[in-house]
UniProtKB/TrEMBL annotation:
Molecular function GO terms recorded: DNA binding; DNA-binding transcription factor activity
Protein name: DNA-binding transcriptional regulator, FadR family
SMART domains xref list: FCD (SM00895), HTH_GNTR (SM00345)
Coiled coil feature spans: 115-142
UniProt entry keywords in alphabetical sequence: Coiled coil, DNA-binding, Transcription, Transcription regulation
Amino acid sequence: MPRPSRTHDAVDRLLDAIIDGTLTAGEPLPPEGQLAVEFGVSRLTMREAVRLLQAQGVIVQVPGSRHRIAPVSAWTGMDAVVRHARSAGQRRRSSVELLEVRMMIETGAAQLAAVRRTEAHLAAMEDALERMEAHHEAADVDAFVDADLEFHDVVMRAAENRILIAAMLPLTTMLAETRGETSAVPEIREHAIEEHRSVLEAVRSGDPVVARDAMARHMQQTHDDLVALVPE
């Protein structure tokens, strides 16, 4: 069995070749032996990489013929869709789409968190917010983003819903990249601190509607800042 790291590397490189147009959607996939030579991996590794991309709907098996590369609209794997979304020329659109998804998911998470949170959750949110403030003052964008993401992670955990947490996991990488782009702007960091403080107090209140609305305002502010303050 090929080593997972080698197989995953082959998956990433094959997917990149499809995304950048080296391999064209709708066209037959070159034979696995040819791909293995081109990518410098064993045929077994390439076969496993193709199988994994089949599971994500990127490659389609055609009876009696070679595999074909599916159009992006037919892809079903979150990892593949997110990777394509973050490709050149798609970053602004993907950032807006991510915010739309977050609006739907995180407002519900905040609503549940208001009812189910513990004092430990509130303390963790406060700690993350304090670190956001400190890192903003120090202009440490990476540390600010880490604290920002941790704040939202606590809200998710406070919602006490395992499926909700699992649904957000594939978006983590894309979310970190988007936060890095927006948080590089000092004004956006200031807005984020203010909105996070409102979310914290809303969750602390125990009122699910208040918490939902506070998170919705935060998501809308993030969207508005992205459009107005982050260059294309």
